[in-house]
Amino acid sequence: MSRPAPPSSVRLRRSVLSVPAINRRALEKIASLDCDAVIFDLEDSVAPEKKAEARENLRTFFADPPPAGKEAAGKERIIRINSLSSGFGADDLELVLALEPDAVLLPKIDEPQDVMTVSDRLAEADAPDSLRIWAMIETPRGILNAAAIAEAGRTAGSRLDCFVVGLNDLRKETGVLPQPGRTYLVPWLMQVVLAVSAYGLDAIDSVLNDFKDMQALDAECAEGHAMGFVGKMLIHPSQIELANRHFGPDEAALAEAKAIVAAFADRAAAGLNVVNLGGRMVERLHLVQAERLVHKSELIAERSIAQRKTVS
Ligand SMILES: CC(C)(COP(=O)(O)OP(=O)(O)OC[C@H]1O[C@@H](n2cnc3c(N)ncnc32)[C@H](O)[C@@H]1OP(=O)(O)O)[C@@H](O)C(=O)NCCC(=O)NCCSC(=O)C[C@H](O)C(=O)O
Ligand SMILES: [Mg+2]
Questions:
Q1: CA of 274 to the centre of ligand 1 (A)
Q2: What is the residue with the minimal CA distance to atom 41 of ligand 1?
Q3: What does DSSP say about strands 202-205 and 231-234: parallel, antiparallel, or unpaired?
């Protein structure tokens, strides 16, 4: 079976900032922030008695003209709803249908059916295809079923696009303690990366709660990038810059990618699957990675221009 084209390969998701939908001041700040994506949170950061008010805040926010609501410099907009079994999820999902963000983020996904139920509801409501589904993988069953859940992304009509790991819930459920290096969590994190890689989705690494500890964030972003995550979920604006740096291509990686693209574009490489690049074997599979990296750097440049226009 051929691997589907990654649906998200053209999206920048280095820094994915969670903004409590109840916090109007934080909502106002979004346009000035250089994150790639925003998760408007209706779930854990909003108290039960404030859910309705939080939904109203989002209605107002999305009704605003750009750059505040609709387009904020090309940032991807995701609304995290409460689970459908919580008593709040159905109203949240109606809001999503009304606002048509780029994606709806489903919390505490245990199995493929959790995704398909929402996918079916969106189809029934004739939601645009551009409205994707993201899934929080943050329960023991979610980790165990990560591959099956990712496979649901291949089901006809499925809108599944991206996983976000939630280590707060996972630690709560399993008793694994927060530790530098996340030693005992690494096998589970890699299971998520493997699952998304098999089915052409993206995976976003978990939040770091200690938002003042830049050293810890630096280490965790480097680790997440090395593991294969495309970005990090964040809770505070001060975390954006480090995430953008780690999950964007650095200068050396970009120079190498451009050299690979140039090597294969050379007429001498016509019909070759392997070339010698300064004493190193480079294959066409590296060309695909290189082209993605170059494309990503172009998207980053476009986003920076759009962001500068927004704040000036
Ligand atoms: C963690 C916070 C409660 C800290 O807030 P605060 O004390 O207000 O921080 P600061 O005074 O340092 O804020 C400085 C300014 O920045 C704005 N701000 C702060 N956070 C955000 C934000 N997330 N988005 C936008 N703007 C933000 C403040 O308004 C200040 O602005 P100004 O007044 O102009 O100076 C707070 O950061 C926060 O609430 N963060 C998000 C929490 C959240 O979304 N939680 C849910 C996601 S975590 C998760 O999902 C876990 C997962 O499910 C799992 O299981 O692991
Ligand atoms: Mg959680």
A1: 49
A2: 235
A3: parallel
Instruction: Determine the distance separating the centroid of ligand 1 and the alpha carbon of 92, expressed in angstroms.
Output: 21
User: Does one domain contain both 144 and 263?
Assistant: no
Those residues with Cβ within 8 angstroms of residue 174's Cβ, 6 or more apart along the chain or in another chain: 140
* Count of domains forming the chain: 2
- Confidence check on the interface: ipTM exceeds 0.95, yes or no: yes
pLDDT digits (tens, 9 = 90+) for 42-83: 999 999 999 999 999 999 999 986 655 445 668 999 999 999
Q: Which of 29, 30, 78, 83 best tests ligand 1's pocket when mutated (most atoms within 8 Å of CB)?
A: 29
In sequence order, what are the residues at sequence separation of 6 or more whose Cβ sits closer than 8 angstroms to the Cβ of residue 292? 9
Within 6 A (CB) of ligand 1 lie: 17-20, 25-26, 29, 41, 44-45, 136, 138, 166-169, 206-207, 211, 235-237
Predicted model pTM: 0.94
Of 247, 269, 295, the last residue of a domain is 247
